[in-house]
Structures are given as structure tokens and as C-alpha cells.
Specification:
The protein is of the alpha+beta class and 251 residues long. It is 31% helix and 22% strand. It is built from two helices and twelve strands. The strands form two sheets. Strands 1, 2, 3, 4, 9, 10, 11 and 12 form an eight-stranded antiparallel sheet that branches. Strands 7-6-5-8 form a four-stranded antiparallel sheet, with no helix packed on it.
Amino acid sequence: MVSDELEKDFTDADTALDVTSEQTFSEEDEIAAREKEEFQKKYQAVFDENAAAEKPKKKIRVADPDGFSAGLYDWIKCVILAISIVVLCLTFVFRLVEVDGESMLDTLQNADKVVVTNLFYEPHNNDIVVISHATNYNKPIIKRVIAKEGQVVRLDYDNEKIYVDGSELTEPYIRETTFSRNGSKEDNYLPTDEEGNFKIPEGKIFVMGDNRRVSLDSRSPKIGLIDVKDVIGKAQFVVFPFNRFGNVYDK
């Protein structure tokens, strides 16, 4: 009887040990599985980078920076850029104009090459301007602005003086006299008052050459008053011939 009870106790103990052992092994497996999963998650990025690094990369052919094709390409880009800058400057900033004739002596001489600026330009008194041929003459002309719209001008032919808004002009730049040969009362086509004054209409300017004896300008109906929209720009510098290089207003 006692022997049977002892045998039963030992059997129950073995069963308990087996269960405990199975539970222990099961928990260890779960812990190991979780650690493995965490390890894989943690280092997955490293695995991916290594795998990507092991893949063969597609080779891209590039031009040799010191090669002929690369040098030619850079040279072409520079030429195109330079041409674009020149075109923009000639269109919106300045132009090169050649003086034709002697009407602006001694300030400008025949065949002088003059830089003319035209960006946002509006004519002002004493400016030397280039005027497009419009419909009255067959080529551009270059003259000096004597008066602009709204101003009152009087040409004193007897005393060879010019008055603008009642003040006599001081003109150290003119050659010889103001009206000799090319300018007389008979030429005057502008409506004047009893004192010989006339007002410059809106949008017009009155111009004259510095060499008054030979200049064909606003004194003559062949040229007349100049429409502001026909002004190409303001003369700034003589650039050729080189012995005359300089500001046109210093000459």
C-alpha cells in the first residue's frame, strides 16, 4: 500500500517536471524568436544597403573634361552668350551711328563713329540726338535739341540770337554765325506772334546743327519740327577715329 503511494508520487513529480521543462523550452524559443526578429528589423537597412552595393551599376559615359568635344561645347556656349549680349545691348541699350555730313562741325565731324544710347530716353535741351529718316529725308540725321514741347522759341534773325522761354541761349559750340546762308525770315514756316515767338507743340522738338551755316534742320520746312517718336537716341561718345575718342559734350 505504501509502495503504491510512493510510486504514484514519483509519477506525478516526473509529469510535473516534464511540463515545467516543456514550458521552459517554449518560453526560451519565444524569446529567441523575438530577439531574432528584432535583430532582423534593426539591421535590415544594413542588409539592404549591402545588397544594393553588390548590384552591378550601369555605366554612364561622360565627356572627357579635357577632351576636344567638351572644349568645343564650352566654346560654342561662350560664342552664343556673347552674341546674345551684343544683340540685347544693340537693341535696348546703345547703337553705333556714323556721322554723315558737316552740319555738326566742330562738335562732330564727317565719318565719326558715335555711341548712341536709347534705353528709356527722352530728349532734353542741348542733347545731341540721332533722328530716324521718317518720311522727310532718306537717312538718319544728327542734330542738337534747342527746345522741346511746351517751350516758346524766338529766332532773332537780325541779331542772330535764339531765345527759349525768354532767355538767350549761350552756344559756345556753334560754328560761325547762327543764321548765315541757311536760315532767314523767309524760311520761317512756323506760326509766330507779333514778337516772333512760337510754341513747340506737344510731342515735338526743335533741333539745329552746330554748323548753322550749312545745317538743314528745324528752321527749314524740309525738316521741320521733329516728332519725339522719331528720335533714335542720344549721342554720347565718339569711339572712332581713335584720335577723336571722347565725350561729345566735351568737344
